[in-house]
Amino acid sequence: MGHYAASARAGLIAATALISVTMHATADAETAFTINGIDVDSSVVDIYIESRLQKPALQATAEEREILIEELTDIYLLTTQARTKELANETRVKAQLELQKRGTLAQVAATDFLTQNQATDEEILAEYTQQVELAPPLQFKARHILVETQTAAIDLIKELDDGADFAELAKSNSTGPSGPNGGDLGWFSPNQMVAPFSEAVAAMEDGNYTKSPVQTQFGWHVILREESRAAEAPTLDGVRDVIKQQIEQRKLQDYLTDLRELNKK
Questions:
Q1: Are residues 193 and 217 in contact, defined by beta-carbon separation less than 8 angstroms?
Q2: Which of 141, 143, 142, 144 minimizes the C-alpha distance to 231?
Q3: Are residues 76 and 36 in contact, defined by beta-carbon separation less than 8 angstroms?
Q4: How far apart are CA 198 and CA 189, in angstroms?
Q5: Is 183 left (phi over 0), alpha (psi -120 to 50) or beta?
Q6: CA 203 to CA 214: how far, in whole Å?
Q7: SS3 224
Q8: How many other CB atoms are found less than 10 A from the CB of residue 39?
Q9: Which residue of 42, 53, 79, 162 has the lowest C-beta tally within 10 Å?
Q10: Domain boundaries, the chain
Q11: What topology does CATH give the domain 136-230?
Q12: Three-class SS of residue 167?
């Protein structure tokens, strides 16, 4: 349930981007066309175009705009029929319309909150500093051979003990995507790999391979740690946007948590 809630919040945050663009793009709206006595506002046209193309309406080509306006016209033709008005009173349809309205309002409210609570330079610097301090101190260059069974991995280790070439064994035995390249994984930080794999690499010395197979959800691994080096922290400018988004996501999540607590009282 917690994972679902976090995913839902992330989706809400991501959805605010289009809403924000639309709010700015349609400030000066006017009637675009009329269907069965219903005036269709130009803002509705722009929002429909943006939702279909996933880009600002002003970037739509003339052909794209014409096609999408025809689609929108069909929507209005269908929804202005007498039978459609009857259907709109059905319980399930009313519930769907209510959810769509609430979803849109929630996105607008989230966008407004994020606009009013943007990450400051001080917050971004503090978060960056903390992430750098918590980052693994070393990066590793390694190869691995991935097989389906523990027995197969043990047999490969015996071959290595007898002097077999690791890269050649990987090419002929590994089921992983790096197999054709001799199992080469390049340089990576421990947090880029699943825990059992990264822990095994960190426990070895450069130039050594695992003496026992390492199991992960992908299968059984024989790992060769080729080199290690001090990890280089990314520049603040290089990760500023990512950190800014992380901070603002937390702010929105905290705001939602506070609203839930208030609702319980």
A1: no
A2: 141
A3: yes
A4: 8
A5: left
A6: 12
A7: strand
A8: 11
A9: 162
A10: 2-116, 121-131+234-264, 136-230
A11: Chitinase A; domain 3 (3.10.50)
A12: helix
- Residue entry with tokens 């008005």: 85
Q: Which residues of 178-214 are buried (b: 16+ CB within 10 A; e: fewer)?
A: bbeebbbbeebebeebeeebbebbeebeeeebbeebb
pLDDT tens over the chain, length 265 residues: 344 344 444 455 444 444 444 444 445 679 999 999 999 999 999 999 999 999 999 999 999 999 999 999 999 999 999 999 999 999 999 999 999 999 999 999 999 999 999 999 999 999 999 999 988 899 999 999 999 999 999 999 999 999 999 999 999 999 999 999 999 999 999 989 999 999 999 999 999 999 999 999 999 999 999 999 999 889 999 999 999 999 999 999 999 999 999 999 8
Q: For the sheet containing 214-216, what is the strand order?
A: 184-188, 138-147, 219-230, 214-216
Question: Rounded distance, CA 60 to CA 50, Å?
Answer: 8
**The two structure tokens encoding residue 162:** 């007898």
Q: How far apart are the first and last CA of the chain?
A: 22
Regarding pTM above 0.70, the answer is no
Residue ranges of E strands in the chain: 31-35, 38-41, 138-147, 184-188, 214-216, 219-230
Reported as half-sphere exposure (CB side, CA atoms, 13 A), residue 242 has a value of: 8
